[in-house]
Every structure is written in C-alpha cells, then in structure tokens.
Amino acid sequence: MARRPGRASWRRSWTGSRTSVRAGRDRRVNRPGDPSRARPPGRPLPQRSPAREATVDEVERSAPSVEEAIEAALAELGATEQEVAVQILQEPRGGFMGVGSQEAVVRVRLRARREEATEEDLEEQAEIAADFVEGLLSRIGLVAEVEQQVDDGTMYLNVVGGESEDDEEDMGLLIGRHGQTLEAVQELTRVVVGHKTGLRCRVIVDVEDYKKRQRARLASRAVEVARRVARTGKEEALDPMNPYERKVVHDAVAGVSGVESSSRGEDPDRRVVIRPRS
Prior knowledge:
Number of helices: 7
Radius of gyration: 22 Å
Oligomer: single chain
Number of strands: 11
Strand order of the largest sheet: 1-2-6-7-8
Order of helices and strands: HEEEHEEHEEHHEHEHEE
Largest sheet: 5 strands, mixed
CATH class of the domain at 9-47 and 117-208: Alpha Beta
CATH superfamily of the domain at 9-47 and 117-208: K homology (KH) domain
Mean pLDDT: 76
CATH topology of the domain at 9-47 and 117-208: GMP Synthetase, Chain A, domain 3
CATH architecture of the domain at 9-47 and 117-208: 2-Layer Sandwich
Shape: globular
C-alpha cells in the first residue's frame, strides 16, 4: 500500500500523540514518524495474573468429510487449527446407493492452556495489539485514530480515519477487497499477541466498524436462510466466505432448531451449506 507522493510531506509534519477517553472508549491517535509512539517510561503493561491450572476442552463432530467435521469442531471451540489436537474417529464411507454410508467423525481437543483471558489479560492484549497496529499504520503512512472498544465481551481495536476523501480512500485500502487486507492485519496481530502473551488473541482489529456491520449482516442472512431450510427441508449453499465469515454463519445457524451447517469446497471458493438436521 504505497504512500501517495502528494500527501507525504504534510503527514510527516505531524508530531506527538495523545490518549483520551471518550464515551467509554480509549482513543489513541497515530501519526506517521511519531517518535513518541512507544510506551512512555513508567507506563508498564498491565500485569498478567499468575498462570492458572490448565483446562482441556474437546468436542466430537460428524460431517460428510473429515475437513468439514474439523471445521465444525473449530467453530464450536472458537479455535484455530494451531490451537487444537485432532483425532479422526471414523473415516467417511460412501456405501452402495446410500446403503452402508457413514460420515466422518472427529474428536477435537484444545491443547492445554490457561483459562480464558481475565480482564487484565485482555487489557494487556489490547495494549500490545494497539502498539502493533499503530506501528503498522505509521510505516505505511496512514493517519488514523485507534480506539479500544469493548462490545458484548469482545475487545475491538477500531481504526478510524478522517472525513476527507483521501482519508476515506485510505480506510478502504486498509480494508481491502472483501476485507482481505484487514484479515491479513488481523492475522499478524494474532501472531504478535499470541507470541508475547502465550494466550489466544481475543482482540479483533476493525476499520471503521466494518467487521461489526459485516457480522450483523452475515448473522441476519444466515438465520433467514436457516429458517427457510427448516421450513422447506431443502439444503442451501451460501456464497464463498473466508474463515471468519464462515464462523459467524456457523454460530448463527447453531441458534436455529432443526438445521445444521458445514463447509464445502476449497478456499477461496469454500462456502457454508445449511441443511436439515439429520
């Protein structure tokens, strides 16, 4: 994402940073080339709670393929493949004319880890993630504010630009086509936070509430289709989605009785299929 030559000169002239609380949100202003962006002396990270007894969670899921069964289990646990151990209990079998067929069955277990992040852990993750995102914005030459927002128990880092056309263009570039650039930023943030804390990253990076709006639309659409499937008894396939979007759909469908969901295909054409519960 190259910096536009016509805007670089005045952007470099911005100096200083500030942190203020507005309407319950922690707002941090990022300005490229800001030497004071680093945490000031005497402002340590929030202290993490001592390590607690490890917990192990596991689920068993079945689906037409092993891959679909694993994805359904990951959606249930809210985890990534790197955070689990997978045991294949049963391979799928086609049978003859539908007779003797069987679905794949897997057992997916979260690797031993500390309990869910405490409030102190979440604050630490938000600080680490905010520093990383601010540094990234500075390197690519974008002027934006980074707001920490807690919504329904989830910590969001929302990147907010100005109101000019150039600022709107910058935010569009940061989101990318179908949110692909934003997903890349999220993955980098996840790796940085996980490496520094040893916990699964609970911070979601957003740009001007793009993910919040997207999540609401996806969940509403998924529930609408799931109810139609329950009424008609016919399965329906949704448009191709990335892993984050598929998880939103799986979570929404889980709240509708009489139906179930799984994923089919390979990325980038992988999609969620909603069908009557067998």
